[in-house]
Structures are given as C-alpha cells and as structure tokens.
Amino acid sequence: MARFEDRRKAIELRLAGQTYSSIRGKLNVNKSTLSDWLKNIELTKEQLERISSDTIARRVETYINTTRIRRQKISETFYQDQKKKLLPLSNRDFLIAGLFLYLGEGAKSDRSRIQITNSDPAIIKFSIFWINKILGVAKDKLKVQLHLYKDMDIESEIRFWLNETGLNREQIIKPYIKKTSSLKINHPSFGHGTCSVYCQNAKLKDEFMAGIRVIMNSTKGV
Which of 10, 64, 74, 131 is the most core-located residue (most Cβ within 10 A)? Predict the structure, then answer.
C-alpha cells in the first residue's frame, strides 16, 4: 500500500514541476522505479525553464531525456527491420496471430461468447479487426464493456474508447466501475481502464478454438 501512495505523491509532485532529484529525495525511491512511474508525465515549457536554472537538476533532466530519445531511436530501428521481414501479412497470418492472441487474452469458459479483454488500445483495435475482417463477424454485432475506476472521468473514458474502437455509443454497455483508485494499479497500464470487446457465436467459437488446439497439438513430438 505504501508504494501506491508513493506513486500517487510522485505523480503529484512531477505535475507540480518538481525535478526527479527532488522527488527521489522526498520519497526515497530508486531511479528506475521513479522513471517508470513518471515516464508519461510531461512538464510545461515554464516548468522546464524553471528547472533549467538548477544546474544539477538540468543535468538529470537532460540525461533522462537523452536516454528516452536513444531508446526511441533503437525501438524505431527494430520496428523498421521487422516491418521489412514480416510485411505484407496474409489473411492466414492474421488468423494465426489472432488465435494466439485469443489463447492469451480471450474468454474460454463460455462456449458461445467470443471476448478479448485488455487495457492496451492497440490490442483492442487489432481484436476488432480480427473478429470483423478475419472471422467475418459484422462490426455492428460487437459490444464493449469497460472496467474503470472511481477516480476516473467516466464520460471522458467512454469517449476515448469510442474513438479508439470506432464503434457506436449504443454498442458500449454500462461500464463496471471499480471502487478502488486507478493509482492502486500494481501492473503496467495505459491509464484508461480495461476494455472487453465481445459478441455471441457458438459455432464460430467452436471452429477457432479447434484451430487453437490444432496449433498447440502440433508441437507434440517436436
């Protein structure tokens, strides 16, 4: 619980324009943890200018920014390399990719419910593409349920997911609101709660679950 409170305080202090060094001194948290907590927090131009007057703080901020840019460049290089290797993808490639996604993130206990749940908007968008374009389910047959937190702006989060999914308002059912705070999330999160996209089709689910079994059984004897 103490770490949750420290994370909340760290975010508040950063938004107030505090330097990494100052926050570390107040909360006694290591650099890697603090960097993870604050990686998506950007300071205003005025806050950065105020920090620049402190030589040590400026060096720390410059180092953090330089490291971030270097990692972004490395990531982009890998991305372009993989893009050349993998594209273009066939429908079969997309089918197999979706089967593995469903194996990890899909609902399996309900025979007729096809559902993928995640907090990453990119995964949800791919899931909608896969169910719609690869499995052949009409987009207007899809429903979405959000799992949000009590301290979130619910209407703002609904609009966020409407924009990300491209679905209509009537396709999003009443969100489930968790009584805990979003600051108490103890795993990586994209900050917009969790989204479940689903539809009902028992025959289709039987078919692709059989495909998953085929893939898993193909490793026997290898």
Answer: 131
